[in-house]
Design a protein that fits this description.
By secondary structure, the protein is α/β, with parallel strands linked by helices. 32% of the residues lie in helices and 20% in strands. It has a seven-stranded mixed sheet with strand order 1-5-6-4-2-3-7. This is Spore protease YyaC.
Length: 200
């Protein structure tokens, strides 16, 4: 598999390319019934940093066995509670496969692009925050240009760009789960699926 895939959220086939890319990684995970955790990082208090919570909100109806979602507009996973949430995930699930989703800043030509890498992401890197790396697979959306005053850049990011990225990522993930895990499934333990309420 390719180490790094960059997709344009504005392209018409982005959802399908993202679906196929993610499916390559999670198919063997789903096949062995390893729990998959979608960790949507960010805060609704900043337009540029709201990508993760928006994706979490859009995926809240992704009801499947062994699929768990952390982070939404109501209960975001952000700098103040990230370490606690990572500890909770590792305590709750045996060998979870974590798909970490976050916004990032980048070059002008990459704004609106989705980057998929088989490696952990570094939350808060744009803000020089010292947070633990997280994720077996990282999906980042380039929401604006990196440079000086990055806090202000995130605050003044266009919601349109963030929404286009969130729609593309959520749709790609949804269809990859359909492709690899299949239709809606339940078992006797309803907790096999959960959108986790975190301390906001």
């Amino acid at each position: 598999m390719v180490d790094k895939v960059i997709l344009d959220s504005m392209s018409r086939d982005c959802t399908f390319k993202l679906r196929d890319t993610i499916s390559q990684y999670i198919f063997p995970i789903a096949k062995c019934s390893r729990p998959i955790v979608v960790l949507c990082i960010g805060t609704d208090r900043s337009t540029g940093d709201s990508l993760g919570p928006l994706v979490g909100n859009k995926l809240k109806f992704l009801v499947r066995n062994k699929i768990h979602i952390y982070g939404s507009l109501e209960c975001p996973v952000h700098a103040k509670n990230l370490c606690q949430i990572i500890d909770e995930i590792n305590y709750t699930y045996t060998d979870p496969y974590i798909i970490a989703i976050d916004a990032c800043l980048g070059s002008l030509q990459n704004v609106g692009k989705i980057i998929v890498e088989e490696k952990p992401l570094s939350p808060g890197a744009a803000m020089n925050k010292d947070l633990p790396k997280v994720g077996n697979l990282s999906i980042t959306g380039v929401v604006n240009i990196s440079g000086a005053l990055e806090f202000m850049v995130l605050q003044n990011t266009r919601l349109y760009t963030v929404m286009m990225l969130a729609d593309a990522i959520a749709n790609g993930l949804y269809h990859s789960i359909l492709k690899t895990v299949g239709g809606r499934k339940f078992d006797s333990n309803y907790d096999d699926f959960n959108i986790k309420d975190v301390e906001c």
